[in-house]
Amino acid sequence: MSTHHAMTYVELAADDLEASRAFYAQAFGWEFNDYGPTYVGIRSPTGEGEVGGLNTQGAGGPGGPLVLVQSADVDASFAAVEAAGGRVVEPLAPYPGGRRFTFADPAGTVLGVFQPD
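The line above is the sequence of VOC family protein; the predicted structure tokens follow.
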């Protein structure tokens, strides 16, 4: 099944990364991949890949998740979002595992688009 432009990842805002990590580990048994002091990935229940992350860098805002859309061509997706009238919130940039950007839709909802390596 193609994942191009499918919602495949959700980031949760975490003011205190360790407290959030401990909460989700205890409450749901989630396991994590460490990416430094500001981000951990939430491992998939199957053990293969990730389904989301905890992010101290704002994510979707206080208490709000950031939904991420996967792209097979993030440069084309970036151009399409701009052409459709989306407002770029964070420019296209590398991250561990690929490249991504965030944008606001006409209603102000912020989403991210990423392309894994």
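Note on the example: The radius of gyration is 14 Å. The longest strand covers residues 87-95.
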